[in-house]
Design a protein that fits this description.
Layout lengths: L16 E4 L3 H11 L3 E6 L8 H6 L6 E10 L3 E9 L18 E4 L3 H10 L4 E7 L8 E6 L5 E6 L5 H4 L3 H11 L4
Parallel strand pairs: 1-4, 5-8
Antiparallel strand pairs: 2-3, 3-4, 6-7, 7-8
């Protein structure tokens, strides 16, 4: 893994994604039985009579984190999935166009087989696979929804994406220098 030379010191990559669900058992079933993630362990409950929850997690001080499950998916990505109890809890999922909107993209080798698999299991797939253009040419993708409405995406680019095949800025500069007779 290549370390960043500017920005956050020591940044080496993504460790995990955390998200909150309305029903942790339903999420576990979906993540393990449908997506094929590996359940790892459970923690919780956590609550504090002071301001720890507000100070450390940016939730109301009286919020209770009932349980959380950790999952490994594809041998690499880890999901930290929460079950919170909070008086001011919002229940609607943000759309991509909403502030805080998000999705989790999962890479698959065979997009068509993965889409067929999701359809067989009654998962709501949004539209048909889309073929990307421009810098992402070579990629196909499609969105689908978890039972609680969270957006996921399947992506596949078995032969790479166009931007992977483009010369780096340094290579382009070097090419222009050679064309001008500079070394």
């Amino acid at each position: 893994m290549r370390e960043s030379t500017s920005g956050l010191p020591g940044l080496a990559g993504v460790d995990h994604f955390g998200f909150t669900v309305p029903d942790l058992d339903e999420a576990r079933h979906f993540l393990v039985d449908v997506l094929g993630c590996e359940f790892m362990y459970t923690l919780g409950p956590y609550q504090d009579d002071g301001t720890w929850m507000a100070d450390h997690l940016n939730v109301a001080a009286d919020t209770v984190m009932r349980r959380l499950h950790f999952f490994r998916c594809g041998g690499a990505a880890i999901f930290e999935v929460f079950d919170y109890e909070a008086a001011d809890r919002r229940r609607e999922q943000p759309r991509n166009s909403d502030v805080g909107g998000h999705h989790v993209a999962l890479y698959v080798e065979d997009l068509d087989a993965a889409v067929a698999y999701l359809h067989e299991r009654g998962v709501r797939v949004l539209g048909e696979p889309t073929t990307s253009k421009g810098p992402s040419a070579g990629q196909r993708w499609v969105y689908f929804l978890a039972p609680w409405g969270m957006q996921f995406e399947l992506v596949s680019y078995p032969d790479g994406k166009a931007f992977d095949k483009l010369p780096s800025p340094a290579q382009t500069m070097q090419k222009h220098r050679r064309a001008r007779g500079e070394h």
